[in-house]
Specification:
Blueprint lengths: L1 H5 L2 H10 L6 H16 L5 H13 L2 E2 L38 H22 L7 E3 L2 E3 L10 H185 L3 E6 L13 H7 L22 E3 L5 H13 L6 E8 L5 H5 L10 H16 L4 E13 L2 E4 L13 E4 L2 E4 L5 E3 L2 H21 L8 E12 L4 E11 L6 H4 L5 H27 L13 H5 L1 H4 L4 E8 L6 H15 L10 E3 L2
Parallel strand pairs: 4-5, 4-14, 6-13, 6-14
Antiparallel strand pairs: 2-3, 7-8, 7-11, 7-12, 9-10, 12-13, 13-15
Helix pairs in contact: 2-6, 4-6, 8-10, 10-11
Bound molecules: adenosine-5'-triphosphate (ATP).
Length: about 675
C-alpha cells in the first residue's frame, strides 16, 4: 500500500485533503460524498440521479401507496443505526423533492394528458396522439351529440381512471424510492467501512508524508550544503588556478633568469680563469718585491721606534722643564702671579660692529709702552700673561701641577684678584660648557683623577669640600641649609689645618657631585646678589678642597688643602660710586680692608723671610685669617690678576697691576709638604 502512494507526494497531499476528519464529518458530508465515492469505490453518482428519474417514473404507477411522505426524506447516516434513523442532510444524489414538489411530481405526468385533453376538447380539430403512461388518447372525431350530463360522466370516469393509474404509479415510485433509500443506506455503510479502513492508511500516509517532508528538508539542506561546498570548492579551484597561473609565470621568469645567470656565470668563470692567471703572475712578481718590502718595513719600524723615543724624550724634557720651573719658583718662594686679560665683550660697546669704537674702547697695553699717544709707560712683569684669546684649558694647563700638588700634601691657594667685571668668576668657576668650565671644576676633576691613579701605588684618599662666602667680614656657608646663613662661624687653626665651625663639610665622591655643589653655592650667591645689590661682586668666595691620603704600603699619610678664592671687586671707593650709599660704602670699606690686609700679609711674609721674628697680621681680616695656612711660607700660592681690556678701566687696571707686582715681588719662603707618618 505505501508503495503505491510513495510514487507521488502530490497525489498523497490531494488525497489527504479530500478525506475529512471525524470532527468535520457530519457537516462536510454532503459536499464530500461525491468525491469520496469517486476516490473510494469509483462509483459515479449518476446512477443515483437515474434512480431519481426512475423514482419519478415509478411514482406514476400509483398514488397514496408506499413509504412515508416524500416531503421529509431521511438521508442515510455515515455510521450508526439503520436507514430509518438517518437524520443527516440529504445528499444531492438522494435528495427528495421539496415539500412543494410532491404535488408537482404527481401532477406533472398528469398535466400532459390534461393539456392534451384540454386541447382535444377546445382546440382545433387536429389528428394528434399523446402517449402518457399506458394510456393512449385518441382525438375526438365527431360532433358532440350527447347531452352535457353524459359527457361529464364520461369525463369523470376517465379522470378517475387516470387518477387511479397515477396513484398506482406513485405507489410504485415510492416503493422504488424506498428500495433506493435502502441502497443508499447500504452504500453509506459501505462507504463508512471504507473510510474506517482508510483511517490507518491515512495515518500511515501522514507519517510517511512527514517522513518524506523531513527527508525532503534534510535532502534540501544536504543539497544546499553540497551546493555551498561546491561553491567553496569552485572558489578554491579558481584561486588555485590563479595561483597556478602565477606560479607558472614566476617559474617561467625564474627559468629565464636562471638561463641568464647561467650565461653570466659561464662568462664570469671565463673571466675568473683569466684573473686567476693574472693573479698567479702578479703573485710571482710580488714574491720578488716582498723581500724588499719586508726589509723596508723593518727600517720603517726602527725609524718609527726612534721617533717615538725622541717624542717621549721631548715630552719628558718638557715635563722636566716645567718641574724645574716650578722648583725654581718654589725655591724662589715667591707667590706667583698670572695676569689674564679678558676679551672685549659686546656688552662693553654701544655699537659692537663699529670697528672704530672697538679700537678706541680697547686699552692697548702693549702699544701704550711705545705709542705716541701716551707719554707715560708702565712696565709690569709676571710669571705668565694670558691674552684675551687664551682658553680656559690653556690657563689650567699652567696651574694643573700646582693643583695636583695638594695630593702630595701641599697647601695650595689660588685666588683671583681684579676689579668688578674683569673675569675673576669666569676664570675660577667658568661657564657651563666643557670649553668654558673654570679652574675650580677642572682642579677638582684632576685631583679625583690623580687620587684614582695613585690607588695603584697604595694611596687611599678622602676628599672633603666646603664653600664659604665672606661678606662684610662675616662668614656665610654657601652649602648650608638656608639661603641666608645666620649662624656665627669661627675660624680655628689646629696643627697646620684650618677649620670653620658650624659649616657644612661635604664628603666628595665624584667630580659630578662637586659640580652640583658648585651650582648650589652659585644659586645661593645669585639669590643674594639679586636681593642685595650685586652682592656677588662685593664678597669673597672661598672653595676649599681638603685631601687626606694614606699609603697602605709605606704607612705614609699626608694632608693637603686646595683653596680656590674668587675675591671681591677691587675698585677704589670713589670709582665705585659707593660714597653716597651707606651700605655700598660699608661694603667697599670692608673689601678694601680685607684686600689691603691680604697685601699686608703677603708683604709681611716677604719681610719674614729676612727677619724671622716678623709678625704676620693674619687676623686683620677674615679672609687672611681663613687663608692663613695657605698663605704662609709653607704653601704654594698663585694669584690670578684679572684685567679689563677697556681703556675706561685703565686706572683701575693700573692699581691692580701695581698690587699684583708687589705680591709677585714678595719672597715668602719655600713650600713644605705636610707629610706625617702613621707608624
Ligand atoms: N676670558 C674670558 N672669555 C670670555 N668671557 C669672559 C672672560 N672673562 C670674563 N668674561 C666675561 O666677562 C663678564 C664678567 O666676568 P666675571 O663675572 O667673571 O667678572 P668678575 O670679575 O668675576 O666680576 P664680579 O667681581 O662682579 O664677580 C662675564 O660675562 C664673563 O662671562
Amino acid at each position: 500500500m505505501p508503495a503505491s502512494f510513495s510514487s507521488s507526494l502530490s497525489s498523497i497531499t490531494s488525497l489527504k485533503r479530500k478525506i475529512p476528519s471525524d470532527d468535520e464529518h457530519d457537516s462536510a458530508q454532503p459536499s464530500k460524498l461525491p468525491t469520496i465515492a469517486e476516490a473510494g469505490s469509483g462509483r459515479p453518482t449518476r446512477p443515483l440521479r437515474q434512480n431519481t428519474a426512475a423514482m419519478n417514473v415509478g411514482a406514476t404507477r400509483g398514488l397514496g401507496i408506499g413509504p412515508p411522505p416524500l416531503t421529509k426524506p431521511c438521508p442515510p447516516a455515515l455510521s450508526g443505526p439503520p436507514p430509518t434513523s438517518i437524520t443527516t442532510r440529504p445528499t444531492r444524489a438522494t435528495s427528495a423533492p421539496p415539500k412543494s414538489a410532491a404535488p408537482r411530481h404527481v401532477s406533472q405526468p398528469m398535466a400532459a394528458p390534461r393539456a392534451a385533453g384540454t386541447r382535444t376538447l377546445s382546440g382545433p380539430h387536429k389528428t394528434t396522439t399523446f402517449a402518457m403512461g399506458n394510456f393512449r388518447f385518441q382525438p375526438f372525431q365527431g360532433q358532440v351529440q350527447q347531452p352535457a350530463a353524459n359527457l361529464r360522466t364520461v369525463d369523470n370516469a376517465r379522470i378517475s381512471a387516470d387518477m387511479d393509474a397515477e396513484r398506482t404509479k406513485l405507489a410504485s415510485l415510492q416503493e422504488e424510492q424506498l428500495s433506493l433509500t435502502r441502497h443508499l443506506s447500504s452504500a453509506r455503510t459501505q462507504e463508512l467501512s471504507h473510510r474506517r479502513e482508510l483511517i490507518p492508511q491515512t495515518d500511515e500516509l501522514e507519517a510517511l508524508r512527514k517522513w518524506h517532508a523531513r527527508e525532503l528538508l534534510e535532502l534540501e539542506a544536504e543539497a544546499r550544503r553540497r551546493e555551498s561546498e561546491l561553491h567553496d570548492v569552485n572558489a578554491d579551484l579558481a584561486t588555485a588556478r590563479e595561483d597556478l597561473e602565477r606560479e607558472r609565470s614566476a617559474s617561467a621568469s625564474l627559468k629565464e633568469t636562471l638561463a641568464q645567470k647561467s650565461a653570466a656565470h659561464i662568462s664570469l668563470q671565463g673571466e675568473n680563469t683569466t684573473l686567476q692567471a693574472q693573479l698567479a703572475a702578479l703573485r710571482t712578481a710580488s714574491d720578488g718585491t716582498a723581500g724588499t718590502v719586508s726589509s723596508l718595513r723593518v727600517d720603517l719600524e726602527a725609524a718609527q721606534h726612534r721617533i717615538d723615543e725622541l717624542e717621549a724624550e721631548a715630552r719628558e724634557a718638557e715635563m722636566v722643564r716645567r718641574r724645574l720651573h716650578n722648583m725654581v719658583q718654589e725655591l724662589k718662594g715667591n707667590i706667583r702671579v698670572f695676569a689674564r686679560v679678558r676679551p672685549l665683550l659686546t656688552s662693553d660697546l654701544s655699537c659692537p660692529n663699529d670697528q672704530k669704537e672697538r679700537k678706541e674702547a680697547m686699552a692697548n697695553m702693549c702699544e701704550s709702552a711705545t705709542g705716541q699717544e701716551r707719554k707715560e709707560t708702565w712696565n709690569f712683569s709676571f710669571d705668565r700673561v694670558f691674552e684675551p684669546q687664551c682658553t680656559q684649558e690653556e690657563v689650567f694647563e699652567e696651574i694643573s701641577q700646582l693643583a695636583q700638588s695638594c695630593t702630595d700634601g701641599y697647601n695650595v691657594c689660588i685666588f683671583a684678584y681684579g676689579q668688578t667685571g674683569s673675569g675673576k668668576s669666569f676664570t675660577m668657576e667658568g661657564g657651563s660648557t666643557n670649553e668654558t668650565v673654570g679652574m675650580i671644576p677642572r682642579a677638582v676633576e684632576q685631583v679625583f683623577q690623580v687620587t684614582e691613579e695613585l690607588k695603584s701605588k697604595g694611596w687611599e684618599y678622602t676628599l672633603e669640600g666646603q664653600f664659604l662666602e665672606i661678606y662684610n667680614e662675616t662668614i656665610n656657608d654657601l652649602l648650608g641649609k638656608g639661603e641666608f646663613d645666620k649662624k656665627k662661624h669661627e675660624i680655628k687653626h689646629e696643627k697646620g689645618s684650618t677649620r670653620v665651625t658650624d659649616v657644612v663639610v661635604q664628603q666628595l665622591r665624584s667630580p659630578a657631585q662637586v659640580r652640583s655643589l658648585l651650582a648650589l653655592a652659585n644659586s645661593r650667591r645669585t639669590v643674594a646678589a639679586t636681593l642685595m645689590n650685586e652682592r656677588s661682586s662685593r664678597s669673597h668666595s672661598v672653595f676649599t678642597l681638603r685631601i687626606r691620603g694614606t699609603n697602605t704600603h709605606t704607612g705614609q699619610a699626608c694632608e693637603g688643602a686646595l683653596n680656590l678664592v674668587d675675591l671681591a671687586g677691587s675698585e677704589r671707593l670713589n670709582a665705585s660710586g659707593a660714597g653716597k650709599d651707606k651700605d655700598r660704602l660699608r661694603e667697599t670699606q670692608n673689601i678694601n680692608k680685607s684686600l689691603s690686609a691680604l697685601g699686608d700679609v703677603i708683604a709681611a711674609l716677604g719681610e719674614k723671610s729676612e727677619k724671622s721674628d716678623k709678625h704676620i697680621p693674619y687676623r686683620n681680616s677674615k679672609l687672611t685669617y681663613l687663608l692663613q695656612n695657605s698663605l704662609s711660607g709653607n704653601s704654594k700660592t698663585l694669584m690670578f690678576l684679572n684685567l679689563s681690556p677697556l681703556a675706561a678701566h685703565l686706572n683701575e687696571s693700573l692699581c691692580s697691576l701695581r698690587f699684583a707686582t708687589k705680591v709677585n715681588n714678595t719672597h715668602v719662603g719655600t713650600a713644605k709638604k705636610q707629610v706625617k707618618s702613621t707608624s
